[in-house]
Amino acid sequence: MNAFWPNMLVAKTTKTPLKPTSPLPLTAKRPASFLSLGRRGAPFPIPQTSAKITQMKSILSLPRRAAAKLVGLAISLLVRFLTAVRANWQGIEPINKQRVYFANHVSNADMPMIWSCLPPNLRRDVRPVAAADYWLKNKLRAFVGPEVFNCVLVDRRPEARTDGHDPMQNILDALDAGSSLIIFPEGNRNMTEDPLLPFKSGLYNMGKARPDVDLVPTWIANVTEIMPKGEVIPLPLICTVTFGEPIHVGDTEAKDDFLKRASDALVGLAPSQEDRL
Amino acid sequence: MTSTNAEILWLAIGVCGLMTLLSIFGEVLRARTDVNNPVVETFMTRVRSWWGMVILFTLALIAGKIGIIVLFAFASFAALREFLTLTNKRQADHLALALGFFVVLPLQYLFVGLGWQALYTVFIPVYAFLMLPIVSALRGNADRFLIRVAETQWALMIAVFCMSHVPALLMIDVEGYPADRGILLIVFLIMVVQIGDLLDFFFGRRIGKTRIIPKLSAKTWEGMACGVVCAALAGGLLAWLTPFGVGMAMAMAALASTVGMFGNLVFAAIKRDRGVKDWSHLIPGQGGFTDQLDSVIFAAPVFYHITHLIYG
């Protein structure tokens, strides 16, 4: 039952013709629908499995979807108003191609920032990879994370993983469904003075498993000044998100070599601070 | 309809007519040249941005005093954001900067709106300039303290204090000049300064030879002279908007335009210092709000105080 109800929505939504916004043919098939993917990708069966609740959910699903869209729009407008976030398409064009955007991570605002500066047709197909322990903490987050941002939730804590939850499998499933991803390969927020923490191996694993997907380094500048750790009020400074040239895992490339190369490509996008004292 | 409203309507029609001519001119150029000629496309982007600004400004004029104050408060916010993005700061300044954005800026425009002249002319240079460094100093980080404080204060001075003198023109009381016509004085200031800038650019490209500061900007003495003369002529033609006579209107226009052009040079120096070409990318084809308004920002306080001195 639980797996079934979203399919009714799928039947409706897949018929909508593809929008001819992209000058290139889409390289991957589109995700069938916003919600069905949200469900399939969610690693945790949301703990209400009784048939009654499921039924209620399916009645509520349409307003819920609309609400998710609206909240998404509100978040992107707020982020744009506060930080005037600007996308700098240095190494790629803003076209609908399957990509993994990997970015530096210094604050909780990073993901909404990248998400907001993507054009709407790209935003629809992009799914941030996010920590389940954060996004399922309360009902509000469980709505915003999985439904508004359509996150791929993964559990960072091996000991807390339920049986059959394999984070990499969730990510690969999302890629196979045609979604683009946003990931933070450092695994955690960078609280140090260094530009980047050492990358975890996830980026290498997905680049190895799905070699056709472009891995795009994505540098978010200025977020530390907008909201330094420990501060409550964000400063409305201008933030830039720079997209660099895509990289791929080489055929014979070792894991550490690749991760080093990816990390260098990302740091290389950081604007120089020479003009500051 | 009051006479002021009728005049706003006529002005809007006039400016829209001018903009339509520019749009048609651009379309003709587009049809004549190759597809995607970058110069033509830049011109068209600018014309579109101008259209947006004209429409916004006209709406604010129609909304009256509150509309103008809100519009300039937002312009201040955008300019302050562009400015502070480029300045030196430490985490110790976070609260002071947040106060600048969310307390000082709204208060300044509130004082302007209430017409408390004794307060809005000193609030930032006295109270904000003394209080914000205290807030920063209390956090205890002395690293580059003077530079941080000075840069923050200049940002507030330029983006908030100077900018707020445009709507402050509403509050000047001139004998025999009805209070609701203050709005037209703002139109006068912005139009003469912008016309001066536009023609300075145009003549500078055509006949400009001697650069004023070769290392800093492409501005030339010839272009500037032509721009100021054109601004004065425009000021004479628009004298009916102001409490001034024709001669005085021309002199005020020339003064505002000259100050504005030198202000433009100051901003060029700041941008050069910080290694940026534009303040931001918020207005397509024009750079940032500060790029668009730099000369008005410099001209406004001078224009305000001289008007106040002579007529107030």
Automatic annotation (TrEMBL), chain B:
Pfam family, one: CTP_transf_1
Record-annotated membrane-spanning stretches: 7-29, 49-80, 92-112, 118-142, 154-172, 184-203, 224-242, 248-270
Keywords: Membrane, Nucleotidyltransferase, Transferase, Transmembrane, Transmembrane helix
Domain of life: Bacteria
Coiled-coil blocks: none
GO MF: nucleotidyltransferase activity
PANTHER family: PHOSPHATIDATE CYTIDYLYLTRANSFERASE
Protein name: Phosphatidate cytidylyltransferase
Record organism: Octadecabacter dasysiphoniae
